[in-house]
Specification:
- Its EC number is 7.1.1.8.
- It is found in: Cell membrane.
- Pfam families: Cytochrom_C, Cytochrome_CBB3.
- The protein has 269 residues and is mostly helical.
- The protein has 12 helices and 2 strands.
- Among the domains are: 83 residues, Orthogonal Bundle (Cytochrome Bc1 Complex, Chain D, domain 2), CATH 1.10.760; 91 residues, Cytochrome c-like domain (Cytochrome Bc1 Complex, Chain D, domain 2).
- Strands 1-2 form a two-stranded antiparallel ribbon.
- It is elongated.
- The termini are far apart.
């Protein structure tokens, strides 16, 4: 008893007892506590990846390879990210109906839930841009004037200054941006689909992307006003220059002919 009492009075006795109590509590909590939110999210993500892999094997693997490594019929998808999948599949461009200079937008054949599952699987193959949140692409509170400046500097060369689209070389084209979901515009800037260059956050900030989306929403909205009257299709300086040459120069020629005729008539008189 004296020995036991002496051990109880040992300086480390309280520490040992506390350690044993904490270990016992941790063991009981691990054994009986329900799975936490993180574990549930991880399980849900794992299920989404598995389902996305199944969808990929049916609709995508024939062109992009069984592991997304790419083939002669389709590029590698490793590292393209979830945003690229959400854009390409969410606009109906993928799966492609047939090869060509450019894959057109068409009817979407997957539900949004299935698109999310495909995106989860492709994202698991390699890090890439994620699907943006509504706060990232919503035009609310953005600077429309700044967006117009950025659009004319970086985008108008192909899409024309109001986003009407235009022809490129070898059968390619810049599609119209009228009626395009702001999320898909943001994703296109992130990922650079087909012939378009990409504009990651290191090149164009999230705020700048929002400004561009706000500008397009303003010029292509239901209440768009043409301050100059006739819009000429909104195709920019090419159509305006053609209008000036055809009608402006034509009017000058007509005036010159009229003046010459009047002069000749006056001389005869």
């Amino acid at each position: 008893m004296k020995k036991l009492s002496a051990r109880r009075r040992h300086p480390l006795a309280a520490v040992v007892v506390l350690f044993i109590a904490l270990a016992a509590c941790a063991g009981l909590y691990t054994a009986f506590a329900p799975a936490d939110k993180a574990q549930a999210d991880e399980t849900s993500q794992s299920l989404a990846i598995d389902e996305g892999k199944r969808l990929y094997a049916v609709g995508c693997a024939s062109c992009h390879g069984t592991g997304g490594q790419g083939t002669t019929d389709g590029p590698s998808l490793v590292g393209v990210g979830a945003a690229a999948v959400d854009f390409q599949v969410g606009t109906g461009r993928m799966p492609a109906q047939q090869p060509g200079a450019q894959v057109p937008k068409k009817k979407v054949i997957y539900s949004q839930a299935e698109i999310d599952q495909l995106a989860a699987y492709i994202a698991s193959l390699g890090a890439g841009p994620s699907i943006p949140t509504e706060a990232q692409y919503s035009p609310q509170g953005a600077d429309i004037a700044k967006g117009g400046e950025l659009f004319r500097t970086n985008c108008a060369q192909c899409h024309n200054f109001t986003g009407k689209g235009g022809a490129l070389s070898e059968g390619k084209y810049a599609p119209t941006l009228e009626g395009v979901d702001p999320k898909h515009i943001y994703e296109a800037m992130q990922t650079g689909p087909q012939n378009m260059p990409s504009f990651p956050d290191t090149t164009m900030t999230e705020k700048n992307k929002k400004d561009i989306i706000a500008y397009l929403d303003a010029v292509n909205g239901d209440e768009t006003v043409e301050p100059g009257g006739l819009s000429l299709g909104g195709l920019g300086p090419v159509s305006e220059g053609l209008f000036a040459w055809v009608f402006g120069l034509g009017a000058l020629i007509a005036v010159a002919v009229w003046v010459a005729a009047r002069t000749a008539k006056a001389k005869k008189s």
